[in-house]
Amino acid sequence: MYLCFVQAMLRVGLAVGGLFCSLMLMGGELPPEPHDTNRQITDELSKKIETTLRSSDTGFVYNTIKVSMAEAARQGDEHIVFKAHLSMGRAAYRFNNLALALSSIEMAQQMALSRKDWGGLSESFFLKALIFRKLDLNEKMVSAARAAAEYFDDLKSDSIAVEASIALTRILYESGEYQNAYEIALKGLSRFPDQMPVRSRALLYNYLGMLCDQWGVLLPSLKYYQQALDESGKLADSGLISVAYNNIGLVYKKMKRYDFAIRYLERSQSIDQARGDSVGLAEVCNNLGIIYTSLRMFDKGLQCYNQSFSIIKGISDSSFYSLIYNNLGDLYLAMGNYSLALELAQKSVAIDRALLSEAELATSLQTRGKVFVHLRRYDEALADYLEAEVICRRNSLLGELISLYSELADLYRLMDEPAKAFGLLKKSIQMNDSVFNVQLMNQSLYIILDRELVEKQDEINRLKAERQSEVVVLAEKNELIRRKTWFQYSLMLAMAVTAVVLVFMLRLHKKNRIANMKLRLQNIDMEHQKAKLIQAIEKGKEADRLKENFLTSMNHELRTPLNGIIGFAEIIENESTDDVLADMARAINQSGSRLMTTLNGLLNLSQIERNMVEVTWSVFSVNEMVDDIARKFKSQAEQKSLQLNISLPEKPIRVSSDEVLVARVIGNLLDNAIKFTNQGSVSVSLKGVSTPAGYRMILDVADTGIGIDADHLETVFHQFRQVSEGLVRDFEGTGVGLSLCRSYLILLGGDLKVVSTPGQGSVFSILLPALWEEADKSVLKFNRAIQNQDDESASESIPMVLLVEDDDINREFAAYTLSGICELMAATTAQMALDLVDNHHYKAILLDINLGRGLSGLDVLHQIRKKHGYEQVPVAAVTANTQRGDKERLLAGGFNHYLPKPYSRKELIALLDKMLNQRI
Prior knowledge:
Elements: H1 2-25, H2 37-52, H3 58-75, H4 78-94, H5 98-115, H6 118-134, H7 138-150, H8 158-174, H9 178-191, H10 198-215, H11 218-235, H12 238-254, H13 258-275, H14 278-294, H15 298-312, H16 318-335, H17 338-355, H18 358-374, H19 378-395, H20 398-414, H21 418-492, H22 498-575, H23 579-609, E1 618-621, H24 622-632, H25 634-639, E2 643-647, E3 654-657, H26 659-675, E4 681-691, E5 694-703, H27 737-747, E6 751-757, E7 761-769, E8 800-804, H28 808-817, E9 823-827, H29 830-839, E10 844-848, H30 857-865, E11 875-879, H31 886-892, E12 897-900, H32 905-916
Parallel strand pairs: 2-4, 8-9, 8-10, 10-11, 11-12
Antiparallel strand pairs: 1-3, 4-5, 5-7, 6-7
Helix pairs in contact: 1-21, 1-22, 2-3, 2-4, 3-4, 4-5, 4-6, 5-6, 6-7, 6-8, 7-8, 8-9, 8-10, 9-10, 10-11, 10-12, 11-12, 12-13, 12-14, 13-14, 14-15, 14-16, 15-16, 16-17, 16-18, 17-18, 18-19, 18-20, 19-20, 20-21, 21-23, 22-23, 23-27, 24-26, 26-27, 29-30
């Protein structure tokens, strides 16, 4: 009977054990693994080290860390030993024992390298940078900061990463490492959006605003300063709020939005007054004084300067006195009180000489020199200007040097020395061009850097997702192994009684409830992550929209003034009898053309990168195109005493391609060949060859110029790259021309090759598919329709033309150009144009698109077409809108012709001739 009882219990145990195994395999959670004594000891050591660092007892901190380090070494836990070395370095840095701090962190760095712990390596480099900063070892500090930034993504501790992002951003910014500083600040904000303290976010946003301000990218700078203001408001930190208001005001000052600048600076002023911050209040009052002086509101400017002066009386820093004296001198100079202005300028110069402040001394000398000029004391003014020039050159103060050369040119003009005046004015223009090119490069760098950071963040998110997937798979495998192990245990437990099995089943039920709760929490977390991803996508779209608006604004705002600059310079150059003025006009024309080339290059490059270039296919003769383009460059070659050779085949070579893009590439190559050749010749040869891939056109542009090293043959095709680069490069330019040429030719199915020998010259070859025809086919040419002699317009001697233009300079240039060709009437607003159309009948209308507030040029056209007699009058769109699709959009909207700004006199006269001699 006992045997039967045992057999029955075994059957029950096996059944319950099988049921237990089935439940486990259905997803139940296992009991925790047996306790690990060594793990407990190391955890306690880690907590002990962290707690000890909060103590202010030097001996206690050092001894505790040493004991913990020895215990961790005995346990064989390298991680705790590494952490102890870092903690010893932190403690020694805190207690100003920098030698011990440096040696401890050096030990931790060696351990991190041997263990390939890149996060620990980044933390050790970060701490070394702090120590080198305290020791005033700037080169070592910057080197350590760079290394810490390189491994920043591997930092595991959120608190360390937050601390490092702020400190590294500050060090790299102050050292001129703007790109690294920008990346670290953005990484810090994007990696810890929720965990990062509000104060830390405010500081990082403020640094991002300073970086964009340094690059000249003012709109993003304004955005970051505004975010810093929002974060500071959450803290109710009046000091940070005042700094944000002051920074926003200074950005608006640079943008010449003085109303907004005054508003924000006054807010900063009221906060500093309430806080009793005398230094901050003095600076804000000084900034307000500068703005009021620029607005010629002298009473308010004097009030601000006096307030600032009364504040700094309690400050021992003499440099404040020099700054206020200098600014007051500028104000009294603008008011015409030259004696008082001279007295204040003398005081500013004396203080700066005593303090040996060279940058400030150059400014105060220039101010005193301007006062001497107004007092007609030219010799004294010249002495101040020349001393200021030496200081500016020695300290590389480019902005001050540009202004100084302009002032010197005016002085030499007053002293009746026009040659020296012209030379200095030319220097000022050249330096200003270089600074402008650097600013354009900085803005392009910001756009490229912003795009690369978005791509890097996407890559990081992808790697994180893959890593999470691998962790899930590994956890599933470990879970499967554990379940199999417990299956074996369950077979052994089959011998247990039914009561024990029931206890385990109750425990399993409880575990399942916990697991379900965790699963629900994970689902909630996934929803949060999804919302953040959607928000990031929306921010990316907004960034693309801002870039598009920036390019459109730059295109319009630069082309409109350039039209007047280039146009009037051309008029003065051709019609002036004064050789000096003619040379000046030629210099202005060349600088404007260079700026136009730079602008076109950057906009065209942007269109290629965004895949927005439209190809217009047509069949044309390359022979005629090459001959026409070469004639345009003949005078440029003769100016450098270069021989321009053209070799064309007897039978014309015809291609099916985009005529505009091909002409642009040929012109760019000819311009480069002449620019980089100082003596010898430039040769253009065209031929057609038969290849296995078909008939090909090859156009070679050869020069006897400086040539290119073999290592740099591909560099010249990279964006923003030249063989010589920087402010001291041999040749001017943005470095986008050849990159654009190759991109255009690849788009048209061709390519651009180069062969070069340094010191002997280069040969650039254009390859394009050509047609097989043996001879050029005749091209139909449509003659203008012959007007009836009885037509009303034929009886008029001079036709009436209406010009609608709100820019004064462009309006005067058009009137001067068309004088004697037509009777030109001008309107400055949309309503004025409609009134003139009601009272006169014009044979042609030149209509600007952007007319300020109210109706646009397109709206004016639609209303003109509704008036009797104007249904067929030719109307041309004259505009600075030259982005992709603008021409097609305007022609489709009803315009008959399209003239982009800036335009030359020849282009304007040719357009009007075409309009007056054709019917619609």
